[in-house]
Amino acid sequence: MTALGPAIVELSASDAGTWLIIAECFGVETPTLQGEGPSCGHPALFIRLSRCNLTCARCDTTYTWDWSRFDPRTESTKRPAAELVAWAASCPVELVVITGGEPLIQQRNLVALVQGLLAAGKRVEVETNGTIAPDPALLVEGVRFNVSPKIQSFGVAESRSIVPSALEAFVVAGSAVFKFVASSVSDLDRIAALAAAHRLAPVWVMPEGTTAEAIIAATRVLADAVTARHWHFTTRLHVLAFADARGR
């Protein structure tokens, strides 16, 4: 069965409700921060949804979709949107990051969660791989999309990971940034080609790595070439600060 298969089956069983399949929530009991992108360094709460429609070889959250290595019964739970809103509202931190997995697989029920978070005074960032167009109900003030299209070097066929119609929807929405993972200058050439072909802007580049040493090494490989293209550059601050510990 593909990684997408389990998500489709389970979501169909709960379409009438506002339950979401969650891998983990963190940031209330142990404070943390957004480690990537435009809000890097901001205090943040995280709601990580389970399931993904891609199977990237270099994925660092395989426990959200790789059931050959992980048990979905122990790695995920179904929780009502209202409960998640109450959890986030219990903390004064303003930023809530909804990540995955691929959150937009569940966007029918995600709308209720986002609306509740906004009503509670939060601002929301949705981290997505950019293969699924956003529901218009999510294109509202207070919500930003951190769109991270996956290139071939990340271990996935671009025939699956690059969906022009979905990217176009994010471009038109005007509430997205486009963040690419890279480890070599040749990766930047591919990113430039995609950005030009699909009018992606602003472009952020993030060095690949799950250790401080790997992040620093990739940063030094990429920094000159990224700045020469006048793109934005982001580190992975949670890796540097917390050694990529789960739940941080």
Chain-wise SSE layout:
Elements: H1 4-13, E1 19-26, E2 32-33, E3 43-49, H2 72-75, E4 77-80, H3 81-89, E5 95-99, H4 107-119, E6 123-128, E7 143-147, H5 158-161, H6 164-173, E8 176-182, H7 185-198, E9 203-207, H8 212-228, E10 232-233, H9 237-242
Parallel strand pairs: 3-5, 5-6, 6-7, 7-8, 8-9, 9-10
Antiparallel strand pairs: 1-3, 1-4, 2-3
Helix pairs in contact: 3-4
Provide a descriptive summary of the structure in words:
This protein has 248 residues and is α/β, with parallel strands linked by helices. It has a single domain (4-38, 47-242), classed as Aldolase class I (TIM Barrel, Alpha-Beta Barrel), CATH 3.20.20.70. The chain is 35% helix and 21% strand. It has nine helices and ten strands. It has helices at residues 4-13, 72-75, 81-89, 107-119, 158-161, 164-173, 185-198, 212-228, 237-242, and strands spanning 19-26, 32-33, 43-49, 77-80, 95-99, 123-128, 143-147, 176-182, 203-207, 232-233. Strands 1, 2, 3, 4, 5, 6, 7, 8, 9 and 10 form a ten-stranded mixed β-sheet that branches. Helix 3 (81-89) runs parallel beside helix 4 (107-119). The longest helix has 17 residues, at 212-228. The radius of gyration is 17 Å and the shape is globular. The two termini are 31 Å apart. Residues 1-16 have low confidence and may be disordered.
